[in-house]
Design a protein that fits this description.
Chain B: It catalyses: N(6)-[(R)-lipoyl]-L-lysyl-[protein] + 3-methyl-2-oxobutanoate + H(+) = N(6)-[(R)-S(8)-2-methylpropanoyldihydrolipoyl]-L-lysyl-[protein] + CO2. Chain B: Its cofactor is thiamine diphosphate. Chain B: Its EC number is 1.2.4.4. The complex is a heterodimer of chains A (351) and B (436). Chain A is of the alpha/beta class and 351 residues long. Helix content of chain A is 37%, strand content 20%. Chain A has 15 helices and 14 strands. The longest helix of chain A is centred in the N-terminal third of the chain and has 15 residues. Chain A is globular, with a radius of gyration of 20 Å. The relative contact order of chain B is 0.14. Chain B is α/β, with parallel strands linked by helices and 436 residues long. Chain B has three domains: 38 residues, no CATH class; 301 residues, Thiamin diphosphate (ThDP)-binding fold, Pyr/PP domains (Rossmann fold, 3-Layer(aba) Sandwich), CATH 3.40.50; 47 residues, no CATH class. Classes of the chains: A alpha/beta (351), B alpha/beta (436). At the A-B interface, helix 5, helix 14 and helix 15 of A face helix 15 of B.
């Protein structure tokens, strides 16, 4: 999986306008992990109330995303917690509701479930249940997620749909270093609890020129990565790489023009961009790594058929993980890879 | 008198101030006891906030050089068992070295050693009975070996081949075997611990001479599951043994970032169960504590906690590089402790040498035999096919549900067209799957 990606150019043109860059010339080559650390550094520097914590965070984190921050900002602000995800989540809510900007790390998204109660019943409903007397908006959970080639059941899951199903939470998944830095800073500064899922397979392999300055990328705003006329493909995170490879194959093999949308914020998502595109192309594929049934693709497909029914020339197609746990040795068969997307493009276009 | 006869009939011995509740037509069981201690409070004029008790000491039989310092427990293990313990620990150690290297060579995708903690798994498994149900964490391969889960079976699991009991679905070191009464390892931390409370309860109410034994680290003991598990087991009187391997580190997090109280043992006492702290590198201490603990669990119908103090000599896993956080400054903290916690293998070997139960040349011979066996097992495992692709869809439920049957068909259709893009040959019946 990793090798496939290494032979393909995923670089984006820098969107100076969206990023509102003051110094678009001042760039530095960084991988996704380094941009996360950079965004966290900026968050600590620009907001003295920011604190960063989680399991093994002090020495730099198991993925090295908090490297150097403890040395720079001290142990009161960048610290290890005892090993308890529900503890981390509850503690984070307490911090955020009492004046701190809380940035919590859950070491793997697969391990977020002990924190589910605190996130879903507490963080998500803090503002609503108190009549806006209290809120924990200054709260961000970062967590590495997604397939990695050898992670099996418990180091591979993409749990975004569970959280997208909870009113009061914002769920974000970046696709690249530039996106990660701007989206993470927006998430940290947004006044609602945000879950920020980082595609961990990209930590080292996604590398590009990243603006050095402090910039934000708006939440709840999708991005059209590539314009096209015949078919819209919607995805997020690592899966966009499979989409880009599939589209390259399809456009080379036969006469088709695909539009690719990066949803970026999973929920609440940018309906306008999605619906406009599907109305234009009349055909749509949604693809994600998580299991197909009840995945976020189902929500998108339902919304699209509701709002674009008369524009549709084919059923909205989902290319997703199977409804099984994430299996180690069968990962290549499990994943909705570029060949499955390619086949879906062919069938949808021919429909 | 009535109470006493009930106690006797149910082969139950209570502590001095525990009595049965009387009532018509009631099934009397361990939970019908009233612990009058709970309802008894004494009063004082002193306003004293207490933050500590005397620190619990580590029970040990052997010192760090393998000298017997506690003759009462020396004779508890027969010579044959001692030799088997030593051989198993040596085997574990060689397996750890070879498997760890195999990961570096990409022959397996991941590994976790028990370097420095060989006594915990082996000694505890020897101290309980083979039909006791183990709920492991992930660093108890020694217990698997003790029960006869072979090196070959480990290698099959580590390579995720067709002979892996887990059908290649889980990461390496996630062993498990129904035959050996060891529940399959799960990556999420501490989830197994309350499960052991439930199993221990089931063993009591079904009147079995069987206990549930669960292992976990001092890091896992910070999880909410740990606290529920202990409280449930104590109040519901589960036949459960909680075995904490306190090896001082949870990945990079040292104990002083993990807890501020007296380790894990004190929590056992707080939840109301007999608790002991042992020298985790002294296999005599571990064996004896587990044996005695098991007797108490069965006799008194309540759980026991054992905290074994040791030190994680190796990295957390092959994904970890512990020199990053165990630098010179950090290591100063442990200097004193480590001089007292020498390798459990070294300690047992010294003891056996003094007793003449092994000869100086034996150890080398055991190591060589173990090394060859591990290498052969790994080679054999690497030569096998991966499990059948069908197994991706099996066991999600007891039968393959219609929606999964559909998805299996979709995959077959896909592989008919794109089969050459996947390594079908490496899977058992891979090509046949695609063309069926």
């Amino acid at each position: 999986m990793q090798q496939d990606m290494e032979n393909f150019d995923f670089s984006d043109k820098l969107n100076v306008k969206e990023l509102k860059l003051k110094n678009p010339q001042n760039l530095q080559k960084m991988n996704l992990c380094a941009t996360i650390a950079d965004a966290l550094d900026i968050a600590l520097k620009t907001d003295p109330s920011s604190v960063i914590f989680g399991e093994d965070v002090k020495f730099g984190g198991v993925f090295r995303c908090t490297q150097g921050l403890n040395e720079k900002y001290g142990t009161d602000r960048v610290f290890n917690t005892p090993l308890s995800e529900q503890g981390i989540a509850g503690f984070a809510i307490g911090l955020a509701s009492s004046g701190a900007n809380a940035i919590a790390e859950i070491q793997f998204a697969d391990y977020i479930f002990p924190a589910f109660d605190q996130i879903v019943n507490e963080a998500a409903k803090y503002r609503y249940r108190s009549g806006n007397e209290f809120d924990c908006g200054k709260l961000t959970f970062r967590s590495p997620s997604g397939a990695v080639g050898h992670g099996a059941l418990y180091h591979s899951q993409s749990p975004e749909a569970y959280f997208a199903h909870t009113p009061g939470l914002i769920t974000v998944v970046p696709r690249s270093p530039v996106q990660a830095k701007g989206l993470l800073l927006s998430s940290i500064r947004n006044n609602n609890p945000v879950l920020f899922f980082e595609p961990k397979i990209l930590y080292r392999i996604a590398e590009e020129e990243v603006p050095v300055e402090d910039y934000e990328i708006p939440l709840m705003k999708a991005e059209v990565l590539k314009e096209g006329t015949d078919l819209t493909i919607i995805s997020w995170g690592t899966q966009l790489r499979q989409v880009r490879m599939a589209v390259a194959m399809a456009e080379k093999e036969f006469d088709v023009s695909c539009e690719i949308i990066d949803l970026r914020t999973i929920f609440p998502y940018d309906e306008e961009t999605v619906l406009q595109s599907v109305k234009k192309t009349g055909k749509c594929i949604v693809t994600h790594e998580a299991p197909i049934s009840g995945g976020f693709g189902a929500e998108l497909a339902a919304k699209i058929q509701e709002k674009c029914f008369l524009h549709l020339e084919a059923p909205v197609r989902r290319v997703c993980g199977y409804d099984t746990p994430f299996p180690l040795v069968f990962e290549t068969f499990y994943l909705p890879d570029r060949f499955k997307i390619l086949e879906a493009i062919k069938e949808t276009v021919k429909y | 008198m009535f109470c006493k006869s009930i106690l006797k009939n149910r082969a139950f011995t209570s502590s001095a101030n525990r009595f049965l509740v009387q009532g018509a037509n009631r099934q009397f069981g361990a939970m019908d006891l009233i612990n009058y201690d709970l309802f008894d409070h004494k009063f004082t004029n002193d306003m004293e906030f207490r933050s500590s008790f005397d620190k619990l000491k580590c029970f040990r039989v052997l010192d760090e050089e393998g000298n017997v310092i506690n003759k009462d427990y020396e004779g508890s293990i027969d010579d044959q068992t001692l030799q088997k313990m030593f051989k198993t620990m040596v085997m574990m150690n060689e397996a750890d070295v070879v498997f760890n290297q195999a990961q570096r060579q990409s022959r397996i995708s991941f590994y976790m050693t028990q370097l420095g903690e060989e006594a915990a798994g082996v000694g505890s498994a020897a101290g309980i009975k083979d039909h006791d149900l183990i709920f492991p964490q992930y660093r108890e391969a020694g217990a698997f070996l003790w029960r006869g889960f072979s090196i070959q079976q480990m290698a099959h699991q580590l390579t995720g081949n067709v002979h892996d009991f887990g059908k290649g679905r889980q990461m390496p070191v996630h062993y498990g075997s129904n035959k050996h009464n060891i529940v399959t390892v799960s990556s999420p931390l501490c989830t197994q611990v309350p499960q052991a409370s439930g199993a221990g309860y089931q063993f009591r109410i079904s009147g079995q001479d069987r206990i549930a034994v669960t292992y976990f680290g001092e890091g896992a003991a910070s999880e909410g599951d740990f606290h529920s598990a202990l409280n449930f087991a104590a109040t519901l009187r589960a036949q459960t043994m909680f075995f904490c391997r306190n090896n001082m580190y949870a990945i990079s997090t040292p104990i002083d970032d993990q807890y501020a109280g007296d380790g894990i043992a004190v929590r056992g006492i707080a939840y109301g169960m007999p608790t002991i702290r042992v020298d985790g590198n002294d296999i005599f201490a571990i064996y004896n504590a587990c044996k005695k603990g098991r007797e108490m669990i069965i006799k008194e119908k309540r759980p026991v906690l054992i905290e074994a103090i040791s030190y994680r000599v190796g990295d957390h896993s092959t994904s970890d590089f512990s020199q990053r956080y165990r630098d010179e400054k950090e290591m100063l903290k442990w200097k004193e402790l480590l001089s007292k916690f020498k390798s459990p293998i070294h300690r047992l070997e010294n003891y056996l040498l003094k007793r003449g139960l092994v000869k100086p040349e034996d150890s080398k011979q055991y190591r060589l035999e173990a090394l060859n066996q591990v290498r052969d097992a790994l080679k054999n495992a690497n030569d096998q096919k991966k499990p059948s692709i069908d197994d991706m869809f099996n066991d999600v439920y007891d039968t393959v549900m219609p929606h999964l049957e559909d998805q299996r068909k979709q995959l077959k259709e896909h592989l008919k067209k794109y089969g050459e893009k996947y390594n079908l040959d490496t899977f058992q019946g891979g090509n046949a799957f695609a063309n069926s």
